[in-house]
Amino acid sequence: MNPEVRHRIVADRYRDSLSLLALATRLREVVGIDGASAVMATPANLETVVAGGFTVPDGVRPNDLLISVRGTGAACGEAMDCLESLLAGPTGRSASVSEAVVPRTLREAMLTNPESGLALISVPGSYAAAEAAKALDLGLHVMLFSDNVSVEDEVALKAAAADRGLLLMGPDCGTAVINGVPLGFANVVDRGPIAVIGASGTGMQEIIARIHRLGSGVSQAIGTGGRDLSDAVGARTMIQALTMISEDPSTEIVIVVSKPPSAAVLDGVFSHIAALRAHGRLRIPVVGAFLGIDAMRLAGSEVIGASSLAHASDIAVALVEGRSPAAARQEPLPPLVARPRPAGSRCWLRAAFCGGTFSYEAQFALAEHGIRVAANAPIEGNTTIASPEPVGVAQWPDSHAVLDLGSDEFTVGRPHPMLDPTVRDDFLIDAWCDPSTAVILFDVVLGHGSAAAPVGALLDRLIAQRGGCPSGDEPIAIAHVCGTELDPQNRDAIIAALGGAGLTVAGSNFEAAAWAGQVLRQLELTSRLKP
User: Fold this and answer.
1) Closest C-alpha among 82, 104, 95 to residue 6
2) Predicted pLDDT at 96
3) Burial readout 5-14 (b: 16 or more C-beta within 10 A, e: otherwise)
């Protein structure tokens, strides 16, 4: 039986993209719904709706809110019945608030809340630059959550912000913690003396969450947008943020983090740090975690090099506690908890990450064990593969495979996997059932904005599949949980659930990937020794 499709057009009703992603996720939770979309009906968004397998109803206008669901007739009816309550709940506008007091523009919002100092902008990319410019004109710092903003607009906005003494975080800035307030995808952490400046959303989350778990806290976490350390942008926000942090009396240590940066731009960051020190404006240690950059390269730069995201946190906390950076040196990897080795026919790694930075860091960790992989977002030395659709092991060639499920090709027509991990779960279950899979590796990212139940459905499906594997012939599953016990999902509870289902949980993303590399190398050696 063909699934039924229903649409609801809400005329002249605006919602930001983060709220709409959350709304679509809630609709997918209705039993019998296998697809849901909630967008502002701009031309670009309607293309996304079509790419997600829906038709576009007649008469929809760019200012309208378009909600579409697909599934059984009963499920579609239930989804539409609960839609109004969802729109009036946390993902929508409170029904108790009159239309007269709901600001419709940034200027109206400023009149309503004149003490505001920051605007978080989450609108379609074609409108985002204009809204950011308006916010800057109003004297507001900007967190530009929106993506699909041109590099030219990014450079112009950052120049305009700097001229006004304001900070523009983004575009595509998903994470920040400003004055203790988590913004976007962010974890709940204690306040403290360590600042983080990052061109990496999940990289920042890994660092601030570990700082919290080590007993320290975060003064500020400033996202720059993922392109900030590219040649085109020139680290404009990172350099400006470093200057601002140097004047913050509550910050004793600053960590700078990035996905693989431009070497020339990184040198510019080092030169700026040296200039600040020469003029007596920066008196605190700087720790650097630049993926793909050997920590030894930072030796003469007045930046303390970290070998991983977790190591950066360890160094910073050691310095706060009056210990030397050497006290935080990474210890040899402990042996993996003893488990039956996968059978001889199992030889491949299947890894799926919600965090793009975690995908990069895992590839670097695996490379240290001599493991090269195929990836949709590969590091140098690894091979590029087209992302499979639908996601599944059957589409891959025989190779180790690492997927960044947050890449654009996986989020067309569906929520980001941190919001709705269904696409990750599909891949991991397919990998589990494939007889050639030796190791499964994945991340679980907690915090505000992330799925309320990030592993429940996965573990239910995994347990249901276990009966098909002979005793001792299962892949080894290794997970890493990024978050804290204060997050809405509670990291301790998630780790307990994973461990209770027989999965191995590592203390950091780097450790999880290194464990996977360790297992794969042992399997390779074992196969070579066989007669």
Assistant:
1) 82
2) 42
3) ebbbbbeeee
Tell me the pTM. 0.86
Residues paired with 437 in a beta bridge: 348
CA dist 385 to 292, 336, 355, 398, 513, Å? 20, 30, 18, 12, 20
CATH fold of the domain at 348-529? Rossmann fold (3.40.50)
Beta bridge partners of 404: 353
Q: Give the whole-angstrom CA distance, residue 133 versus residue 475.
A: 51
- As a dihedral over the C-alpha atoms of residue 128, residue 359, residue 308, residue 288, rounded to 10 degrees, the angle is -20
More confidently predicted of 392 and 33? 33
**Which residues belong to CATH 3.40.50.720 in the chain?**
103-172
* Assigned CATH topology for domain 4-87: Alpha-Beta Plaits (3.30.70)
Which stretches of 380-480 are DSSP H helices? 408-411, 422-433, 456-466
Element at 118 (helix H, strand E): strand 118-121
pLDDT over 60 at 99, yes or no: no
Please tell me the least confidently modeled range out of 89-93, 298-302, 392-396, 437-441.
89-93
Cβ(437)–Cβ(348) below 8 Å: yes
In sequence order, what DSSP letters do the residues of 157-222 get, joined into one string?
A: HHHHHHHTT--EE-SS--EEEETTEEEESB----EEEEEEEEE-HHHHHHHHHHHHHTT--EEEEE
pLDDT tens by residue, 434-493: 888 999 999 999 999 899 999 999 999 998 887 655 555 789 999 999 999 999 999 999
Sequence-distant (≥ 6) Cβ neighbours of residue 304 within 8 angstroms: 285, 286, 287, 288, 298, 315, 325
How far is residue 423 CA from its own chain's centroid? 15
Can you say whether the dihedral through the CA atoms of 424, 428, 429, 431 is positive or negative?
Answer: positive
Domain 103-172, CATH: 3.40.50.720
Expressed in angstroms, the distance from the first to the final Cα of the chain is 54
Cis peptide before 390, with omega less than 30 degrees from 0? yes
Predicted confidence (pLDDT) per residue in 223-233, tens digit: 999 999 999 99
Q: What is the DSSP letter of 8?
A: E
CATH class for the domain made up of 174-331: alpha beta
Q: Which part of the chain is CATH 3.40.50.261? A: 174-331, 348-529
Written as six digits, the tokens of 242 are 């470093």
CA–CA distance, 376 with 482 (Å, rounded to integer): 22
What's CA 138's distance to the chain center, in Å?
Answer: 30
